[in-house]
Design brief:
By secondary structure, this protein is mainly α. Its main location: nucleus.
Amino acid sequence: LLSVCRSCLVKYLEENNTCPTCRIVIHQSHPLQYIGHDRTMQDIVYKLVPGLQEAEMKKQREFYHKLGMEVPGDIKGETCSTKQHLDSHRNGETKADENLNKETSEEKQEEDNDYHRSDEQVSICLECNSSKLRGLKRKWIRCSAQATVLHLKKFIAKKLNLSSFNELDILCNEEILGKDHTLKFVVVTRWRFK
């Protein structure tokens, strides 16, 4: 397992299909689909480097604005409100602010219970092309465009009572999808039909 800057790794994999450290072949034709985001390492880096997370979020917002695209919710909704709430308790602010914080946390809790219903939705037809597996009773599902292929694998494994989701591959137009691809990414880059 190797932790490398994603942009450096992507540049490397444009020319190569092997691991930059041990030179083992990642995938013959699509090595980029088999690299994953290390969220734990990212959190550690953000905690070690002051202001990096805010700077990254700002760069990402500017990028989306420059392209004239809507800024995704996870970039738009930075952790500022939580940070301010924690800072106010550290600074020993008065109890008058606690009522305001209580109301804010109740509103936040209502937003958290949205379960991605306000996200852009994607409708998917899941068809089984293996004789070893039975098909799903309901092959059409509708879910958030932010869901990943890994989410789909886990869902299907649970529905089919499989012991492991690793036994499954999900394909779109005869191409195996990487587990970290969002469904929005799949629709934009892989789907060729209306």
